[in-house]
Amino acid sequence: MKNLFPVFLLLALVLIVGNASAQTRADEQLSSIIANIKAIDNHAHPLRYVAAGEKPDDEYDALPLDALGLFPLPVRLHPDNREFIGAWRDLYGYAHDDVTHLRELMETKQRVAREQGEKFPAWVLDQLNIETMFANRVAMGRGLVAPRFRWVSFVDALIFPLSNETAKRSNPDYRGFYPGEELLLKRYLASAGMRALPPTLDAYLAKVVTATLEAQKREGAIAVKFEAAYLRKLDFDEADSGAARRIYARYVRGGEPSAADYKTLQDFLFRYVAREAGRLGLAVHLHVLEGAGGFYRQSGSNPLLLESAFNDESLRKTNFVIIHGGYPFTKETKSLLSKPNVYADFSAQTFFIYPRELSEVLRNWLEAYPDKILFGTDAFSFGPEVDWPEVAWLSNTTARQALALALTGMMNDHEITRAQAVELAQMVLRENAIRLYGLPTK
Fold this sequence. Notes:
Elements: H1 5-22, H2 28-35, E1 39-44, H3 83-92, H4 102-116, H5 120-128, E2 130-136, E3 149-154, H6 165-170, H7 172-191, H8 201-218, E4 221-226, H9 241-251, H10 259-280, E5 283-287, H11 307-310, E6 320-323, H12 330-336, E7 342-345, H13 349-352, H14 355-366, E8 373-374, H15 388-412, H16 418-437
């Protein structure tokens, strides 16, 4: 028997290596099918069309990254990433194999934008085989029209109505981001016909919070978005309504609430917004990701911090979507998908990591909750060369490759059939979103 051990070991290694090798290459037929599925993009920041000489678009995010100091970008978002050559080639006919012909590229991009005019945003979706993109924006704009683009509004400003000076002193990134939220709250107040905050919390809830959400619903919003992890930890605990009312009344006309008192009010307001969103049929999107900025609190973005809110019985009519899948806490996210009203997309993972690693994340989710997974690109502008179409291309390409790899591995391990793999791909890329948001089917 001892002499047979090396033979058994060799056979085991062959099986292991063969299995690993098989899962590094996607099934060609399946890849072709996945490439041709018209996708629904659950999360992106497309820019509206801007004609020559017009003011640049500044409403593509409530918290634009230029409010921060310098911080490193992941390597795949560097302008010299050679992957973008593929984007430039597919989108604009770039005929070179290097990144040194940027002047020619920019001239071509500007020409295409002029030729397409207000149709340019939809033209980008056509090139990527994306049927609908959810636009996370302060407001929509020219070229971003339904049904190709659906609005996801920002609601963080509603939960920070008091003085934010204590938070600003605590974190340099907060100093950069809070002013934008304060301006957005003034905008919401003005839309509600007010110049100042109402004197009581009940009046604020009715005349500002609910009124804003109802107005956004009328204006076409399909979901509301919290980027709160850029402003505080995601531990939105249950809060006493009486305490929240007293804190609001004490500081509404001035003064700085303590961090603990302000957290109590924010926690109460978060759950109120979520409850009202559910009443209105609006999903609640939550930024849960390692995040940008040199002082971002990664530990404050662990999706398990949201467990208390997800377990709130009064919020079970509200559908929550963990945007970016909580990366790098993706297995924690998977555990939360057991909640009946919790979903996750894998946007931004599509440029933070490469297809191989992303396929492992997707397989882990697919083997447990395939009906809870949503495709997303997090298309975002990082400058004229790497604009939102290029990021959308990179994310779209990575997502489809990773999905093909994950499903190929599941087929090779006899977990699913080829027909089931195709069905799962359809679910992830479009059917889950259609069902969750009640989108019309063609």
